[in-house]
């Protein structure tokens, strides 16, 4: 017994003494007898002859109620979970018929935040992408929503767009672009860097293309030590992505000083997605991207318009003299290297066209715009007004006759939701009536139902215990 | 499982061992009423398994008894009920000397944690070997040894504090 040395086993030694320093005054020789005395204070009485039968009855009662509670829990929770999965399954949305003509919807309706997502599975080409509240993850169970990307397919079906897990996310400057035919989405992706990453969680390392019709993702990674500062990623046609970036010159220590420490620029890169080739067509960054053309930054207000098919180059006046550098979304490149842009600011403003010869026209009678999308010699389409404009709660896609400034509404997006992308091949086609997006049952309802089942099961358990106690005490327990 | 008719083996066991169980329970709880209740509950818990343990029910019943006492102690502590009843002397002691000893010991035992108390009772009152105590309590033999050592040490200290001498 170790130190108990002085506290020997009362059964074997029959004496207990305190440690040496106290043994003189605190001897406890009678502990064993005292223990025996205490033990013999135990009550004495006849046993209860009904104990067995009462206990059995209580046991059976408890078992019956516990079984009932478990049955309620299993069946109830399985039903709730099954219903939740069933009502949220994409298959609950009617697929569009093959005879449905492709087109832009005239209105992008408000949808339930619980609408199904594409989930990386093959779907359809998207006609339009807009921001919309979406409930995802654990927060969805209690109705919490974030910003999602709602897609309306070229056949009019609604779905939330699920992008690859390594998408940098809109908050990290990861702009994305929908191809003119709506089949593919180009985006920035994160990944491993060879050195200390600028952002441990979100270092951009390349671009990727998601094919909505197959669910396949093709990536184009860049060797980078600390990560990339994303520049442009725009479709020049249905197969080629124009992109640019700047190498970040340091790790996390330069997080607040990006501009001063930016490293090498990529120039203008063209990725032919199907061929898998990347060509650097200029040392300068792109300032405008259009159908099979790109304008790269030159000196002062001049730039170079490059034909991606023939490779021919043309010196052109840039729309903004460099103001829009790195923000080619604000400029649309049309035929003959003409550039249309919002010359006022990032807020809704007037549309101005700068032709290759340097001539400039404005269109004061046309609706204000935020984002120009297409430009030909006679017409232009643009998006505006949207959030940020105090007066506007509905965003519209306009087609404007540049000779008369007469505008035709192509598409409406109520609810102040921002436009993410449009399949520009469809802007000249007749709009279609989109399908009913459906109303999936909100997940919190299922959460509440699940909680109700749990409470019911718990109630049954407690009830069973009470009944069992009653049975044990001599009641029927029924 | 058989019907609710009391099997002879159960009756025989209870008649033969109830008193011993009550003694152990009294030591564990420090209170005769609690002890009676504890034995009743322990036996009731054994009833559904009786057909499987009837050949040698004692170890199982004692295990249930000891563990049920720990459970009840935890439940009481959670409900913040005090254990003052454990410390009160008998209303009608046989004689002053015995009262002092028994009462001091009861108080000291009540000061031990339930598992420690169980180790002391099983090891030194029931005189069970360490292996069996470990089996009953569901702990390792080493734990029984250390708990017995610590339990006696604490018991001694508590008896010292009461100032009541446990005389021969």
Automatic annotation (TrEMBL), chain B:
Xref: Gene3D superfamilies: 1.10.1740.10, Winged helix-like DNA-binding domain superfamily/Winged helix DNA-binding domain
InterPro entries, A to Z: RNA_pol_sigma-70-like, RNA_pol_sigma-70_dom, RNA_pol_sigma-E_actinobac, RNA_pol_sigma70_r2, RNA_pol_sigma70_r4_t2, RNA_pol_sigma_r2, RNA_pol_sigma_r3/r4-like, WH-like_DNA-bd_sf
Pfam families: Sigma70_r2 (PF04542), Sigma70_r4_2 (PF08281)
GO molecular function, one term: DNA binding
Keyword Transcription regulation in record: yes
The protein's name in its UniProt record: SigE family RNA polymerase sigma factor
Keywords annotated in UniProt: DNA-binding, Sigma factor, Transcription, Transcription regulation
Any coiled-coil regions, as ranges: none
Top-level taxon: Bacteria
Gene Ontology biological process terms, A to Z: DNA-templated transcription initiation
RNA polymerase sigma factor 70 region 4 type domain residues: 104-155
NCBIfam families: SigE-fam_strep (TIGR02983), sigma70-ECF (TIGR02937)
Domain RNA polymerase sigma-70 region: 18-79
Family: Belongs to the sigma-70 factor family. ECF subfamily.
């Amino acid at each position: 017994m170790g130190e108990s040395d002085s506290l020997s086993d009362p059964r074997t030694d029959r004496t207990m003494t305190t440690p040496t320093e106290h043994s003189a005054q605190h001897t406890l020789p009678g502990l064993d007898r005292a223990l025996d005395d205490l033990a013999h204070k135990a009550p004495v009485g006849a046993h209860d002859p009904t104990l067995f039968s009462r206990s059995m009855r209580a046991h059976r009662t408890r078992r019956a109620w516990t079984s009932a509670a478990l049955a309620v829990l299993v069946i109830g929770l399985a039903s709730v979970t099954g219903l939740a999965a069933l009502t949220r399954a994409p298959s609950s949305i009617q697929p569009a018929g093959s005879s449905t003509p492709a087109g832009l919807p005239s209105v992008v309706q408000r949808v339930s935040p619980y609408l199904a997502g594409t989930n990386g599975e093959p779907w359809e080409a998207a006609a339009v992408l807009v921001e919309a509240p979406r409930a995802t993850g654990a927060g969805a169970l209690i109705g919490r929503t974030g910003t999602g990307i709602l897609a309306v397919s070229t056949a009019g079906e609604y779905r939330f767009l699920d992008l690859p897990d390594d998408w940098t996310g809109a908050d990290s400057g990861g702009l994305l672009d929908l191809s003119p035919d709506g089949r593919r989405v180009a985006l920035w992706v994160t990944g491993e860097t060879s050195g200390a990453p600028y952002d441990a969680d979100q270092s951009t390392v390349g671009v990727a293309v998601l094919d909505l019709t197959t669910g396949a993702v093709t990536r184009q990674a860049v060797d980078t030590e600390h990560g990339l500062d994303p520049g442009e990623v725009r479709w020049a046609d249905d197969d080629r992505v124009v992109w640019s970036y700047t190498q970040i010159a340091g790790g996390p220590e330069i997080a607040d000083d990006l501009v001063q420490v930016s490293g090498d620029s990529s120039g203008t890169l063209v990725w032919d997605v199907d061929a898998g080739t990347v060509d650097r067509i200029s040392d300068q960054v792109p300032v405008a991207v259009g159908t099979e053309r790109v304008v790269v930054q030159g000196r002062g207000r001049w730039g170079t318009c490059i034909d991606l098919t023939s490779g021919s180059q043309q010196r052109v006046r840039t729309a903004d003299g460099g103001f829009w550098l790195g923000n080619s979304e604000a400029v649309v490149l049309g035929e003959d290297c003409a550039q249309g842009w919002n010359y006022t600011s990032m807020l809704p403003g007037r549309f101005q066209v700068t032709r290759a010869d340097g001539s400039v026209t404005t269109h004061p009678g046309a609706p204000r715009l935020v984002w120009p999308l297409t430009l030909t010699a006679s017409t232009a389409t643009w998006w505006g007004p949207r959030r940020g404009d105090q007066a506007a709660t509905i965003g519209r896609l306009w087609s404007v006759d540049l000779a008369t400034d007469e505008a035709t509404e192509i598409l409406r997006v109520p609810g102040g939701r921002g436009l993410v992308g449009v399949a520009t091949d469809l802007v000249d086609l007749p709009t279609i009536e989109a399908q009913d997006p459906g109303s999936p049952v909100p997940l919190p309802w299922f959460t509440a139902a699940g909680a109700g089942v749990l409470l019911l099961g718990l109630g049954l358990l407690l009830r069973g215990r009470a009944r069992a106690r009653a049975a044990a005490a001599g009641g029927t327990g029924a | 499982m058989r019907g609710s008719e009391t099997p002879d083996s159960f009756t025989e066991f209870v008649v033969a061992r109830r008193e011993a169980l009550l003694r152990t329970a009294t030591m564990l709880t420090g209170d005769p009423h609690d002890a009676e209740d504890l034995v009743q509950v322990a036996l009731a818990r054994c009833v559904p398994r009786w057909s499987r343990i009837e050949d040698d029910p004692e170890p199982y019943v004692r295990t249930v008894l000891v563990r049920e006492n720990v459970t009840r102690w935890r439940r009481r502590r959670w409900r913040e009920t005090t254990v003052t009843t454990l410390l009160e002397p008998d209303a009608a002691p046989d004689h002053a000397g015995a009262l002092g000893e028994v009462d001091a010991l009861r108080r000291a035992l009540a000061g031990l944690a339930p598992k420690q108390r169980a180790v002391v009772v099983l090891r030194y009152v029931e005189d069970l070997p360490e292996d069996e105590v470990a089996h009953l309590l569901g702990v390792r033999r080493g734990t029984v040894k250390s708990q017995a050592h610590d339990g006696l040490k604490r018991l001694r200290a508590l008896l010292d504090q009461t100032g009541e001498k446990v005389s021969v």
